[in-house]
Amino acid sequence: MNEHSSSKINTCRLCGGILSSAFSGKVLTRYQIEYYKCSTCYSLQTETPYWLAEAYSVKESNLDTGALQRNLNNFAACYTFSSLLSIKKIIDFGGKDGLLCRFLRDHLLECFVFDRYSSPDYAIDFRVHPGIADVDAVFAFEVFEHFANPGDDISEIFAFEPLYVLATTDIYTDQGADWWYLAKEGGQHVFFYSATALNLVAQKYGYSVVKVGGFILFYKPNISDVHQKIISLQSALSGWIFQAIKSYVFALPTPGVNADFEAVKLKLNQVKSN
Description:
- By secondary structure, the protein is α/β, with parallel strands linked by helices.
- The chain is built from 9 helices and 10 strands.
């Protein structure tokens, strides 16, 4: 028996369904592990991820060469989303270095960042604080697949009771061991959701879910005119329209830069005077 034999699992970490072996692979170039498929929600998951502490102790910026372009694309989408749906207060959940939060605040959107594993250096004074309330939207980009125990962990996102959750994660549709999204070298992707699984998540927390462009949108079904708003969002985030919107958004002035500078300066002065 090897030291990690107890990491083999029988039930799904999201829905409790019965698992069957899908294939094996090597994470962090050193640990041979099993991947399992759930017979109930049809998701894919690793065995219990005992290697996560090690995975998060290694800086993966060299592997994530698309980080900046992803932030730019997400910013344009978030600005469009916030404009069309009248979003004011936002939490960027799993916001890493805080760059997206900074982009949004530059354009006067009240965004706060949360990340358990990274320091949000671009938005260090705008981290999520205790008692934050009246949140319109939570953004969770490339977050869901990191949850080791999604049946419990996803509740952190919905605990803010936002009107909307806008997320990205690649949907599992029976891809094999060579699926790039497994991201075995980094070792941080440990759960992969089917469309059925995403619907189960939505139902659990009282939301509906729909695919919007390259994004997954959870929304409270009692929002006024929500279906018409989603149709408008679908159009705005698709094809040439979104490309035109990106060009427009990147050319906008950024009044939030100076506004936050003054706010942070005032805060520093108050600390010094106490």
